[in-house]
Amino acid sequence: MAAGTLGRIRTELPGLPEALRRVGERILEDPERAARLTIIALAELSGSSPATVTRFCRMFGFAGYTELRVALATEIGRAAQANWGAGMGREIGPADPLDAAIETMAATDARLIHETAAQLDTEVVGKVADAIVAANRVLLFGVSISGAVAAMLEARLRRIRISCWSHSDAHEALADAALLEAGDVAIGISHRGRTREVLEALAEAGGHGATLVAVTSFARSPLAELADLVLTTAGRQMETFRAGGLSAVHSQLFVLDAVYLAVAQRTYERAKNSYELTINAVESHRVERG
């Protein structure tokens, strides 16, 4: 996959074997330089071997090192054109001026959404949307911040007549998961893909024949391995103030918004009519302009 390469490497880096991790670290230190290096030069720089570099390339979906170099060069060119580097990757300190901190946040979050869009598999999005449209019940599971994200998608799907529920309480999630059947859909949301409650709920749903969907930043996480369909998000770990899960919220919302859009397209007339009905129903609760 050529798009979103740096974001995928950055996200997956902590879980890679040591030799592969060193290759990824050298690439992330200076992507522009890495795009110019030969496979032998990168192997020497990372203290590995050409075979290890090739294995690294294949792990990220490239046939070989040449494809990786092209992908890096292409992404670097897009980033330079969009001026994504301004404030990107800088940690926010307690003494930083607020305007500088906000610039860093804006650059980081905008880049994460671009990386998520670049790596998003539209075929998988379509399959998830098809499954949701055909399902009698759709359940969403998430804990803490991911639970809030699940609740937002639930609210949107309900307004276009999709029978949908979300839970952040483990007992409620397990109880509803046990009532799912073949043809239903269970969606688990977890930045790192290792939240025990989400894994248990999805496993319970899968045991009753439901289609399992994972939304995670880690394509080789336990959650991704458990699911039938995986939607990956870009995430970035910042050491101060903004944990990885919090920084990934925008990416999660973007991916789920794409799913919502695909569902609405597939049920256009019903969705349009339902949305208009719900807008009219709450109109009396809006304060008129003065």
Describe this structure in words.
It is a single chain. Strand 4 (211-216), helix 12 (222-226) and strand 5 form a beta-alpha-beta unit. The radius of gyration is 21 Å and the shape is globular. The longest helix is centred in the middle third of the chain and has 22 residues, at 98-119. The chain contains 15 helices and 5 strands. The protein has 290 residues and is of the alpha/beta class.
Secondary structure elements and their pairing?
Blueprint: H1 5-12, H2 18-29, H3 31-34, H4 39-45, H5 50-59, H6 65-82, H7 98-119, H8 122-134, E1 138-141, H9 145-158, E2 164-167, H10 170-177, E3 185-189, H11 196-207, E4 211-216, H12 222-226, E5 229-232, H13 244-247, H14 249-266, H15 268-282
Parallel strand pairs: 1-2, 1-3, 3-4, 4-5
Helix pairs in contact: 1-7, 2-5, 4-5, 7-14, 8-14, 9-14, 10-11, 14-15
Please sum up the structure shown.
With 290 residues, the chain is an alpha/beta fold. It has helices spanning 5-12, 18-29, 31-34, 39-45, 50-59, 65-82, 98-119, 122-134, 145-158, 170-177, 196-207, 222-226, 244-247, 249-266, 268-282; strands at residues 138-141, 164-167, 185-189, 211-216, 229-232.
